[in-house]
């Protein structure tokens, strides 16, 4: 991209963020995790990094926030990398549910109890138990080390958020007990809870999320070191799951109206990965990684302003996959 094109993109992004910040008023910070309620609901920040080296950010882009459900993407990738895709899929399916992220009722319907996909809590708790390491500490450390390869530093766990959720995780515990009962949890319930909730409490910035998005968009290749961090097969499967299941029970509409693989978290974060388009008419060869933060969320658990901003951005900049 030429320097004046970058300046124009930066200006466009600044204008969009300013306009879509208004939509933060349509949501509220997650109240079921007490520590998340403290976030500033008016915040909206975004970072975009392209395969051509364009780096633009706008709004409240310097704040750290916890990954929450975005961590499900990273643990799924690491589980597939260490165990192989077929072995992971014995424990978790790839079928969207259309249900809320923490829903329990399909676990009984899905004989013999395999969770529907790794982007909902049930599936992610199973995946947490599949991570390498024979203790919660080792499993968490293996994931933090993997993240270090992607973003160049080992991220911190926000203990305040972790403890807040640990004390109130009754629904997640009930999911874990069910999974244990049906054989879809490979460690103890409390161990799986510690791993899952600590991974949800990893803190990052939008720039770091955007970098992860770009690695996914580039099929596992790090943009600066060119190291292959995970296979193209894993990248492709993960992006498909993000597109079909990544935005909770809004995933179908997000795929239809935004059309990019994305994963949100109840902290208001969104990770998006935009591979080069296959559409002849589009003729777009650039990949993008996007990190977004807007802690006011809607009834599905997605950032209200974030969804509006991505919907507009995807249309304006021709980012849709299909
Ligand atoms: N830690 C959260 C939970 O388990 C993550 C959910 C989310 O971000 N949707 O409820």
TrEMBL record:
Pfam families: Glutaminase (PF04960). GO terms for molecular function: glutaminase activity. Belongs to the glutaminase family. NCBIfam families: Gln_ase, PRK12357.1. The gene is glsA. Transmembrane segments: none annotated. Its EC number is 3.5.1.2. It is an enzyme of class 3 (hydrolase). The keyword Cell cycle does not apply. The keyword Acetylation applies. Keywords: Acetylation, Hydrolase. SUPFAM superfamilies: beta-lactamase/transpeptidase-like (SSF56601). Homotetramer. It comes from the Bacteria. Substrate binds at residues 69, 121, 165, 172, 196, 248, 266. It catalyses: L-glutamine + H2O = L-glutamate + NH4(+). This is Glutaminase.
């Amino acid at each position: 991209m030429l320097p004046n094109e970058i300046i124009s993109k930066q200006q466009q992004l600044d204008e969009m963020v300013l306009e879509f910040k208004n939509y933060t008023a349509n949501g509220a910070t997650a109240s079921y995790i007490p520590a998340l309620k403290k976030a500033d609901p008016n915040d909206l920040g975004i970072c975009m990094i392209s395969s051509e080296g364009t780096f633009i950010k706008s709004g409240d882009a310097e704040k750290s926030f916890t990954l929450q459900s975005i961590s499900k993407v990273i643990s799924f990738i690491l589980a597939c990398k260490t165990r192989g895709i077929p072995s992971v899929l014995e424990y978790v399916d790839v079928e969207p549910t259309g249900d809320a992220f923490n829903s329990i009722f399909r676990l009984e319907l899905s004989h013999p109890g395999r969770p529907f996909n790794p982007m909902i809590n049930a599936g992610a708790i199973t995946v947490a138990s599949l991570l390498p390491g024979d203790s919660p500490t080792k499993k968490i450390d293996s994931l933090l080390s993997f993240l270090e390869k992607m973003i160049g530093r080992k991220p911190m766990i926000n203990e305040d958020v972790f403890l807040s959720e640990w004390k109130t995780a009754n629904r997640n515990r009930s999911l874990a007990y069910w999974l244990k009962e049906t054989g879809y949890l490979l460690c103890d319930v409390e161990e799986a809870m510690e791993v899952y909730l600590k991974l949800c409490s990893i803190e990052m910035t939008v720039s770091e999320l955007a970098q992860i998005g770009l690695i996914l968009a580039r099929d596992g290749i790090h943009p600066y070191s060119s190291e292959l961090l995970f296979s193209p097969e894993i990248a492709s499967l993960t992006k498909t799951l993000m597109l079909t299941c990544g935005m909770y029970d809004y995933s179908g509409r997000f795929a239809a109206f935004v059309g990019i693989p994305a994963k949100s978290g109840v902290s208001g974060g969104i990770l998006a990965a935009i591979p080069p388009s296959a559409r002849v008419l589009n003729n777009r060869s650039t990949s993008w990684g996007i990190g977004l933060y807007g802690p006011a969320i809607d009834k599905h658990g997605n950032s209200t302003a974030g969804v509006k901003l991505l919907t507009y951005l995807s249309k304006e900049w021709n980012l849709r996959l299909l």
